[in-house]
Design goal:
Elements (H helix, E strand, L loop, with lengths): L1 H16 L15 E4 L31 H22 L3 H11 L22 H4 L18 E3 L11 H15 L4 E6 L2 H12 L5 E7 L7 H8 L6 H17 L9 H17 L1 H7 L2 H18 L14 H12 L2 H6 L1 H13 L5 H9 L4 E8 L20 H4 L4 E2 L8 H6 L11 E2 L9 E5 L7 H12 L13 E5 L4 E4 L20 H23 L11
Parallel strand pairs: 1-2, 1-3, 3-4, 4-5, 5-8, 8-9
Antiparallel strand pairs: 6-7, 9-10
Helix pairs in contact: 1-11, 2-3, 3-11, 5-6, 7-12, 8-9, 9-19
């Protein structure tokens, strides 16, 4: 059952991580910049109400929220076939069907149809798909990062939007009298930017493009969910829970942190289980079970939430795992017959972008003379259920992916001394975790430490220098290639040996429990239980207060 929970958590965390974030800067340049954001812009149904397209859109309780009693009933409906047919008779088909039937209504309308198109009447409001030209830049001759924003239905394949983006760019050039634009992409916007350049880059209308924490070079979290590569380690879960607490403090939109006493109970119980080895024993005992049920479980959850049908998510799957992911999600005869057009769109992006790898970006730079920059962020861990959990990331995109190939050490460690001895110190981070010389465009790749995927304070400073000053990591005034970000203060500065420390949650889980740490953990847990029992007996606490 732990594996089942881990898969549900994986999808929830994946959805929760990818929320749009906007900010503003004042600097301006002489080339118009087209901003392409990631996912999360509101999707509406035929009745004009918002369609829950991510877990962040769901509300528990309250007017218009989910009925908690209905949630309990849904859980029972899922558990029944798990026990009655799965555990007893080793038949899991009904279990997958039950999961789909209980989760799908929560995301009704978010899924795409068999051709990869939005369901009838579902999509973005018409007035949000195009900027109102009357609100465009009022200062002809100078242009900022946010003057021109291309809006699009982020669920669809990037190639569904490239012609509209091309039309939009033509309108901007006509309006401004310029013969070139720059493109600034974030998150999913990178996939659309790449698709546009692949089809229209040869026209010479793009001066420069920046990929800011984008997923178009692959995202291990999404890749592992689609290909079923879920691994569960208790120590990493404990660290991730501490990370959620850190994220909740910074209010970055995780939406998954458990409040109050429940939070304390979970943390201290997980600490006890981890220190004593109980958690590892529990998790190890369900590996065989997960192997039996994941083929029914993973597609059921991904289709119910719409994740598997939202073609843009498939742009994040690595080439090496593409066939395995496609087979897991669309391998059945029923799925192939139900989604022929969607599958073709998924394969089309793979053929024209994913399979070409770095050579495609080299063509952009060398053949089309497009200046390319990248921003990568780290200081967080990926989902604890992902095989890439040890890779430094911004909580969604691994640093090696967002930088197009920087060499990184595992979380909590440094690059080997033998490696550092032969490396160019110019490209080595102050914490000795990153070597940017292996990035595809090392002279225009900036790396920000302790920055979450949804925080963009330092990113904007880099973008200004890249677009307006044509900066490289050597000429960037005020900040070098490596930047230290303080999310609680919205402040950044050059990374140095003195300020490159990791977040506190890195050290939450002891790598090798000692007699002392085990005893301390047990004492803290029993103390907490005694305090709860005492308050319950005194009437100072009710079970309903635990989650407050």
């Amino acid at each position: 059952m732990k594996k089942i929970i881990s898969v549900l958590l994986a999808v929830m965390m994946l959805f929760a991580l990818m929320s749009p974030c906007a900010s503003a800067v004042s600097s301006r340049g002489n080339i118009p910049i087209i901003y392409i954001r990631g996912n999360g812009e509101a999707i509406y149904g035929p009745d004009g109400n918002k369609v829950p397209a991510t877990f962040n859109d769901l509300e528990l309780g309250g007017e218009g929220g989910l009925d908690k009693d209905a949630i309990v009933e849904a859980c029972i409906n899922i558990i029944k076939p798990f026990v009655a047919e799965g555990l007893i008779f080793d038949k899991w088909e009904s279990y997958g069907k039950a999961i789909y039937e209980e989760i799908q209504p929560l995301f009704d309308g978010a899924q795409l149809d068999g051709n990869g198109d939005s369901l009838p009447g579902v999509g973005m409001h018409a007035d949000s798909l195009w900027d109102n030209e009357n609100s465009w830049n009022k200062n002809p001759g100078t242009y900022g990062l946010w003057d021109y924003q291309f809006h699009y239905d982020w669920r669809l394949s990037p190639y569904d939007h490239v012609d509209k983006l091309h039309e939009y760019i033509q309108r901007v050039m006509t309006r401004t009298g310029k013969d070139k634009v720059s493109i600034y992409t974030r998150c999913f916007g990178g996939s659309l930017g790449v698709a546009y350049l692949e089809k229209y880059g040869h026209l010479g209308h793009v001066d420069s493009v920046m990929f800011d924490a984008t997923l178009n070079n692959g995202a291990s979290v999404i890749n592992d969910v689609f290909s079923g590569q879920i691994e569960f380690k208790s120590s990493r879960l404990q660290q991730y829970m501490a990370q959620l607490e850190q994220c909740d403090y910074y209010d970055v939109g995780f939406g998954l942190t458990i409040e109050g006493l429940a939070n304390e109970i979970i943390f201290k119980t997980m600490d006890l289980f981890t220190q004593t080895g109980t958690a590892d024993a529990l998790f190890d005992g369900v590996e065989d079970l997960y192997t039996k049920l994941y083929k029914a479980l993973m597609p059921a959850i991904c289709f119910a939430t719409g994740l598997a049908t939202q073609a843009n998510y498939w742009t994040c799957v690595y080439e090496k795992d593409f066939d395995a992911a496609l087979n897991l999600m669309f391998g059945s005869k029923e799925a192939k017959e139900a989604y022929p057009g969607l599958i073709e769109k998924i394969k089309y992006y793979r053929e024209h972008v994913t399979s070409k790898g770095d050579a495609l970006y080299r063509d952009f730079a060398d053949k089309y003379n497009i200046r390319i920059g990248a921003v990568g962020k780290y200081g967080y861990m990926n989902m604890p259920m992902s095989d890439s959990v040890n890779e430094p990331s911004d909580a969604l995109v691994s640093l090696k992916d967002s930088t197009f190939g920087a060499t990184v050490a595992d979380i909590g460690s440094t690059l080997p001394k033998s490696y550092l001895a032969s490396a160019d110190p110019k490209y080595i981070s102050a914490d000795k975790m990153v070597d940017s010389s292996t990035a595809l465009f090392p002279e225009t790749t900036w790396i920000i430490k302790n920055a979450h995927h949804n925080f963009f304070g330092a990113d904007d400073a880099v973008a200004q220098a890249f677009f307006f000053d044509k900066a490289t990591v050597d000429t960037f005034s005020g900040l070098p290639q490596y930047i230290r970000y303080y999310e609680d203060e919205l402040r950044y500065e050059p990374m140095t040996a003195e300020n490159c420390e990791d977040y506190d949650w890195y050290s939450v889980a002891e790598k090798k429990p000692t007699t002392e740490t085990i005893l301390v953990s047990m004492m803290r847990w029993f103390k907490m239980i005694l305090e709860i029992i005492t308050k319950l007996l005194r009437g100072e606490l009710s079970f309903g207060d635990i989650g407050k």
